[in-house]
Amino acid sequence: MRWYRRLLLGGTAVGAGLLLYAGAPPRELWWLAPVAFAGLWAVLQGRSARAGAGYGFAFGLGFFLPLLSWTGEFVGPLPWLALATVEALVIALAGAGIAVVSRLPAAPLWAAAVWVAAEALIARAPFGGFPWGRVAFGQPSGVFLPVAAIGGAPLLTAAVVLTGFGAGELVRRAVQGGGPSGRRPALVVPALLAIGPVIAGLLASLTVGTTTIGGQAVVAVIQGNVPRAGLDFNAQRRAVLDNHAARTIQLAADVAAGRYPRPALVIWPENSSDIDPLRNLDARAVIDQAARSIGVPILVGAVLRNDDGHYTNTMIVWDPRTGPGQRHDKRRVQPFGEYVPYRDFFRLFSPYVDRASDFVPGNGDGAVDIGPVRVGIATCYEVVFDDLVRQSVRSGAQVLAVPTNNATFGYTQMTYQQQAISRVRAVEHGRTVLVAATSGVSAVIGPDGTVKQETRLFTPAALVAGVPLRSGTTLATRLGPAPEWALVTLGVVGVAAALMMRGRSSTEDRRGAPAKEDVDGGSARRVRRKGWSNRRGDTDLRRTGQPASGAEPAARRGT
Q1: Which of 255, 364, 380, 417 would staple 404 via disulfide (CB 3.0–4.6 Å)?
Q2: Over residues 471-477, mean pLDDT
């Protein structure tokens, strides 16, 4: 392949990755994702595994570099570039696999499964995974979103990718036409693969928000704000705590004046009390005052120090009469944020390593009782993990809470991306999701994924809303990881089958098998006949059925 053709294909791969990013939150251009994957298909279809890996890596960089730029907002570009590169390397594996299966019958279906397998790997490794950039999380609205209620985020990803790959194959066949054989291209299968997920989304929309309602409750979400954005937001930890207490006391005055109904519970964000209120009497007194003023339990985000010197990122149910009660310790702590693996090694690359804390994970069931309501909790980073959110719902959660601290990422797109993930979770499990952020954007999200209320960044606010208490479960909740593992298996089987077929074809070719047609994409291509050169003579043989003038049988040339 000439260098300019490689450059063109590489540029197309990068452009397709950028297009996928362009459709991601805060933009809700959900339809750009299938277009991006149609472009990726045009690059990968029919390529070798090696070429597929290279173009897949280019696509991954085009997507992850802009998507994850917020990770380097206050710590420099090295963590951002390293994370984006690792994610792109996994997409390189996907690119190789997609290229391998691209010649199978119904190739887009196998290829979409390969993509889901790559996302499954990203969700688990390294260091517990970082599935922030899953295709599903860029679909907080649109025709595909209801698929999440059927098979969760993995099936939602598969629907988007399959539509893109199917459309790409449809266009390829239509443009290619019948080829030298004169046969009409087979368009039915790629058309069905492209349209099928759209139809599935429309049908699934009939089930969204239909889980059993076990009553209703008024809830309040407090956003107290922080003194300043960045890593030093907690240098004034007492100010952060006072801000949330003051905004709760103001809400209590509004309730007393009849401007808001009295809530049954109040949600504070993660890190709303970075001073351990179980050890510090001043912090305890501030929270007690806020809880007594509103007269209902508050879910307080606190940093607790254990007797062994480690810390837990904990949400505590704080009763206005009895004080601290049930607690949720964050089950999956964030590497390089809440703890640093191989600290001595990574200290060589960044001085910010020593600013990371030493948190340990909890092991609860992800749900607590706050007054009359059973609330599932996914603290900040936890919301990106399928198993954790599902465990909360399976533990009886009637609503979901996502307490988070986004102050360390300033005015970046991070908070909007996290809100989009919460919207997908709402549809996936048929639950209202309450996002409580220290500095924004806090939100009340309905079970259908719509944002009912939200705040602005770095603005003190209180959201009060009546929400349904759901007790039923969606099919996605009941199936759990089964759709993902089925798709992963399909992808692995597809790659294995394609490799076996290619190996068998190579063996037959070496043994001098007669010419045969390889029908791919509706066009017939003549495979090299025994005794004829695979260079110029082979080219003319494909075009005219006759060897080029001057071309000699391979046997006479001793090859």
Answers
A1: 380
A2: 96
This prediction has a pTM of 0.89
Closest CA to 366 of 407, 333, 394, 334: 394
Amino acid identity of residue 559, one-letter, is T
Q: What whole-number distance in Å separates Cα of residue 350 and Cα of residue 343?
A: 10
Angle at the Cα of 424 from the Cα atoms of 419 and 430, rounded to 5 degrees: 120
Distances (CA, A) of 368 to 229, 290, 327, 440: 30, 20, 7, 24
500 burial class (0-12, 13-18, 19+ CB within 10 angstroms)? Answer: exposed
Rounded Cα gap, residues 517 and 526, in angstroms: 5
User: Phi, psi (5° rounding) for residue 206?
Assistant: -70, -20
In the prediction, which pLDDT does 235 show?
A: 57
> Whole-number mean pLDDT of the chain?
89
Tokens representing residue 281 in the block: 């009497």
What pLDDT is recorded for position 214? 87
The tens digit of pLDDT for each residue in 424-466 reads 999 999 999 999 999 999 999 999 999 999 999 999 999 999 9
Residue type, 377: I
Cα Rg of the chain (Å, integer): 28
The model's pLDDT over 238-284, given as tens digits with 9 standing for 90+, comes to: 999 999 999 999 999 999 999 999 999 999 999 999 999 999 999 99
For 216, residues 6+ apart whose C-beta sits below 8 A from its C-beta are 466, 467, 468, 469
Residue 336, Ramachandran bin (φ over 0: left; ψ between -120 and 50: alpha; else beta): left
What residues have CB less than 8 Å from 254, skipping those under 6 apart? 260, 462
Q: Beginning with the edge strand found earlier in the chain, give each strand of the sheet holding 323-329 in spatial order.
A: 323-329, 311-319, 298-305, 265-267, 213-223, 461-470
Q: Is 268 left (phi over 0), alpha (psi -120 to 50) or beta?
A: beta
Active site residues: 270, 330, 380
Strands 323-329 and 311-319: antiparallel
Asked whether the bond before 441 is cis by omega within 30 degrees of 0, the reply is yes
